[in-house]
Write a structure and sequence with these properties.
The structure is a single chain. The chain contains seven helices and 15 strands. The radius of gyration is 21 Å and the shape is elongated. By secondary structure, it is α/β, with parallel strands linked by helices. The longest helix is centred in the C-terminal third of the chain and has 18 residues.
């Protein structure tokens, strides 16, 4: 095991990289383990990130921050964290470096503090190349981020009807043509059906979904009557899963499985912090960055003074 460092950050997305930047500028020894699965990498373009008037892709935003970290000699490591164990005044982090997509020899490092910033994994339809369809903007993950650009487009909210309906009503802020696509429409109450009608939301009974082929740039939904409906974009409302299950930590969570923290991003486990989508259900780059700044500052203040 290597000698102890100040902090290990699990996750190389907006929260993890922002926290690494702050900790580096606080002159703290930090390592970032990034499995390469940040949700942000799938964003084709975001136009609500402050400071980028023309918008920026998620991958470009991440690349910019990784480049910024090189000024402080911090380089995220392509690795999977397999477990975190409390030992003494910190943690033993067991991780496996990844090279060429294959797991290498297991390694360990000791850190006085750990920041969980591994984010979430969105539920996507079971179709080939779902990630590529998300990068192309046909599947979309966040109407808060890109709803403004949906004017004049036909949009579907795909998922369990009771979950999809509130999202569809929210989406009517941006588009006149919004549908709930679900296989369980009969589970909606009369009040919910009335709310859909009052909001101008169509209800489509799902039979199957077909991804675009060739030059076609629309997703096709075939309803239970065999009618084909074409959509410019589909928002899967299929839940998300915090990326903590493999870490072996009995950390406090809310009813949705998200990690709970206090106002300093401290979890229920002493010396363990969390920030970003793993914590907050408002899954935004700006929110993740803000929480990361709070967490990194709290981590710095919790450690012994490092005056030069």
């Amino acid at each position: 095991m290597n000698s102890s460092i100040d902090c290990v950050i699990v996750g190389g997305g907006p929260a993890g990289l922002t926290a690494a930047l702050y900790l580096a500028r606080y002159r703290r020894t930090t390592r970032v383990f990034d499995a390469g699965e940040s949700r942000a990498r799938l964003i084709p373009i975001a136009r609500n990130v402050p400071g980028f008037p023309a918008g920026i892709s998620g991958e470009a935003w991440l690349a910019n921050l990784r480049e910024q970290l090189t000024l402080y000699d911090v380089a995220p490591e392509h690795a999977v964290v397999e477990s975190i164990v409390a030992v003494g005044d910190g943690f033993r982090i067991d991780y496996r470096p990844l090279r060429g997509g294959d797991a290498d020899t297991a390694c360990s490092v000791h850190a006085r503090r750990v920041l969980l910033a591994a984010g979430i994994r969105d539920g996507l339809p079971l179709v080939p190349n779902a990630d590529e369809l998300t990068r192309a903007g046909l599947f979309r993950l966040c109407p808060i981020c890109d709803g403004y650009e949906s004017e004049g487009r036909r949009v579907a909210m795909l998922g369990p009807a009771k979950c999809a309906l509130p999202h569809a009503i929210f989406m009517r802020t941006f588009s006149r043509d919004v549908s709930v696509v679900a296989s369980d429409l009969d589970g909606l109450s009369g009040a919910e059906v009335d709310a859909a009608a009052a909001s101008g939301v169509s209800l489509i009974a799902l039979s199957r979904l077909e991804a675009p082929t060739g030059d076609d740039q629309a997703i096709q939904i075939i309803d239970q009557g065999g009618v084909i409906h074409r959509f410019d974009s589909v928002y899967p409302v299929m839940g998300c899963h915090p990326q903590t299950d493999v870490l072996g930590l009995e950390v406090g969570r809310d009813e949705d499985g998200m990690v709970t923290t206090d106002k300093h991003q401290r979890t229920s486990i002493q010396r363990l912090y969390a920030a970003g989508d793993i914590v907050n259900t408002l899954n935004q780059i700006s929110v993740a960055s803000g929480e990361a700044a709070i967490a990194a500052t709290a981590i710095h203040k919790s450690l012994p003074h490092n005056a030069r």
